[in-house]
Amino acid sequence: MQKEAFLKKSCTFLDTLYDDFTNAPTLPLHSFVKEKTAAVAVDMVNGFAKEGNLSSARILQINDKVAAFCAACIKRKLPVLAFADSHTRQSPEFSDYPVHCLHDSLESELTQELKSIPGIRRIDKNSTNGFLEPEFQQFLLENPQIDTFLVTGCCTDLCIQQFCLTLKAAFNRENRRCRVIVPIQLTATFDLPVHNGDFSAVCAYFNMRQNGIEILDNITL
Q: Which key words tag this protein in UniProt (predicted)?
């Protein structure tokens, strides 16, 4: 692999992806069959949106929009699941990331904007993949009719991507069709010198799209 050729080809490809995702479609919330649809908010907690080692202004920027979306879903009588990072002090994740969102801490609490919405079902998670949590598995068993998942929150290239890919693969394994839908305007990731937020998000949207996940610009209320 030669650097110059790699960069030239990659820039052309990224230009195409940028156009694809900036022109992604928008769908209204009422277009989804409510009896078959669930909304998922991933990691909209204080530790990522408001305070702590991993808090990010980018996550805070989508907080009100995600809360409004969840409230609209509750109003339409859709189940709304809110995954919340909630770690033990023994979490191996702290070898890769600074300590964050310890169980029963303020950081692990849903943001007040989400917390104040009646009817949201909180699911604690001790890894970057909420699909693995037994409570989510129980939700799937109790609701076999649900085959459409509207996924919002953070971080696009970490917890969102892992959850969506695993969810889609699990349905594929059982020869069941499902729609996993990710709206760009309702997801975000952090930005640091060692983690280009825009680049990381575009790569995640591309990877998810390649695996059958629908990438929208937004879901209107």
A: Hydrolase
